[in-house]
Design brief:
alpha+beta, Single alpha-helices involved in coiled-coils or other helix-helix interfaces, Heat Shock Protein 90, five-stranded mixed β-sheet, 5 strands, 60% helix, 8% strand
Length: 415
Amino acid sequence: MTMSHALPDRDGPPPVRPVFSAVTWKEIAHLVTNLPEGIIGFVYAVVMVSTAGGLSVTAIGLPLLAAGLFGSRLWGRLERARARMLLGIRVEEPSRLPGPGRAGGFFPWLWTAIKDPVGWRTVLYQLIRLPWGVLTFTVVLTGLFVLWPVLPYVVRTLANADRAMVRGLLSPSDDLERRIAELESDRGVVVDTAAADLRRIERDLHDGAQARLVALAMGLGLAKEKLLEDPEGAAAMVDEAHGEVKLALQELRDLARGIHPAVLTDRGLDAALSAVASRCAVPVKVLVDLPAGAGGSTGSGGRGASGGAGGQEGRPAEAIEGIAYFVVSELLQNVSKHAGAGARGASVEVWRAGGRLMLRVSDDGCGGADMARGSGLAGLAERLGAVDGVLVVDSPEGAGTVVTAELPWRGRGRG
């Protein structure tokens, strides 16, 4: 007798039951919290825009709108963090708005803040999140009880839409927006640096050559009065004045050399850096390995020894040469001041790598240099950053210092 077992009736294959992974549960958490986030963001955006718009005819309307847009920027930062934590996407932070000092004053800054595209895109994001939050909250909450078998697929679809929304509205517009902000910041750095240089030149002229020339004029006046009564005393005063003239001329040469030395223009980096190295307190070896005609050739030797210089063709941009000269000069001054009594020597290396001009200044002194502890290296980094340059400092305690600088060969860019 054949035994048979009754099987349950089936209308088709068994239902697919996908695994609820940790990623899925994070997406569910994100979609459920869309509703409270949407309510708060929507209320903030509506109140901010309506209040600022209503008060726009008064003195506080526009500043209030700028402050509201800044608050929306902060909201966008929180949303990017939430998306990063629950959706696993990383969206770059938009460039910061320049402060009033960098923007050229309060009113230019206010106009920039009101036109802020990041702030307005975040406001749009806040406005559409309320209806979207209602939809995702309802679908997910219903799916937990009704659509359980297919809920992971639904959740993934909604989460992907959220990802696209975050990327589209909360990410930087494009590289151009970031570049414009960098250019505005760099312009402020260049203006500040130029103003500081002018103040330094004025101070050096006032305290140095100008004061010496005033004393010289007074001395010559006294010598003129004594010329007939006391010829020997007058001659001594003229000799003293002659010495003062030499000192004044030397100070003026040093000042001109600090602005832009003639040797840099005439003979290029090789000769100019060798001259700087010769004035360092420790022996400096200079190695300049630049293409023919770029103002340098391989050179070595004792204090400031180096090879010859080429012509004008193929040299870096004039502004880049000036910055490179200034950077090396400042770094060698730091070697003289801070390397310590144990420093036996230093080296300056210059070479070209593709479309970049590379500099390296190293010493065997006491080390411990840190950009965070002083304004000198930080100022150099800012000056380099204004032309897309980079400054890297490696200075362990007791093991010397190596400072590497990278500059574009022909101005901005890497080519």
